[in-house]
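Re: that backbone. Tokens:
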């Protein structure tokens, strides 16, 4: 059973599968919790990074939220990941970088 299927089954059995908007907002909140956990792990820049139990838990929460969002949107997360990896492979082959062209533009050049 895939992770997405496990999340979908869990969420359906407990009435936790909602409108995609709810899951998108939940995912955004969970990513914010990851950022907070990273900041706390480095004591806001005063120590070297080390993974903490809190960070691990927040990554798990965000992964759950992402897979619930994929399910609510009727998107196969595995297929979406394969497409993203293929896109990055193409970019690396063409430009030597994984980031998109829009990410390399100088924001001041549009003024």
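Recovered sequence:
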């Amino acid at each position: 059973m895939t992770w997405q299927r496990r999340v979908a089954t869990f969420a359906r059995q407990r009435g936790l599968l909602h409108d995609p908007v709810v899951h998108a907002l939940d995912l955004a909140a969970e990513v914010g919790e990851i950022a907070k956990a990273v900041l706390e792990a480095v004591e806001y820049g005063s120590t070297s990074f080390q993974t903490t139990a809190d960070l691990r838990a927040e990554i798990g929460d965000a992964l759950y939220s992402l897979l619930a969002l994929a399910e609510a949107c009727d998107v196969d997360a595995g297929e979406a990941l394969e497409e993203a990896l293929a896109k990055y492979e193409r970019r690396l082959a063409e430009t030597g970088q994984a980031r998109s062209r829009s990410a390399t533009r100088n924001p001041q050049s549009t003024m």
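The domain at 3-99 is CATH 1.10.287.1080 (Helix Hairpins). The chain has five helices and no strands.
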